[in-house]
Amino acid sequence: ANSAIRNTLDLASFAGRISFTGWPKQETSLPTNLITYKELDLRGSRTSAGEFDEALRMLSTLEINPQDVVSKVVNLDEIPDAVKELDRYPERYLKINAVFH
Questions:
Q1: Residues 16, 38: contact at Cβ < 8 Å?
Q2: Which neighbouring-strand residues pair with 43?
């Protein structure tokens, strides 16, 4: 878990928002210098148990149209340009997903 958290902080864009989900089993030290430098917004979520499974079910059964939720899908190397475009035209996007291959 610690390496995943660190990778998330490293990959996040400047002024990015990171949501941690679940209930941590142990304390994790965070590089506050990196968080401050990148002006990251960190949020925790522990009360949505079961909601992710329901959301995935609704998307997989097309109860919800994925195109209504995900505005754009990009590869890892396209993330910087996608973030710039999102910053410039926020009204065009609800959610941009990055695919890691």
A1: yes
A2: 19
Determine the Cα–Cα distance for residues 27 and 12; give it in Å rounded to an integer.
21
Mean pLDDT of the chain: 86
**Cβ distance 58 to 64 under 8 Å?**
yes
pLDDT at 97: 85
In the chain, which stretches have pLDDT less than 50?
none
Collapsing DSSP to helix, strand or coil, 97 comes out as strand
3-state secondary structure of 19: strand
pLDDT given for residue 3 in this prediction? 82
The whole-angstrom distance between residue 4's C-alpha and the CA centroid of its chain comes to 13
Which amino acid does the sequence have at 12? A
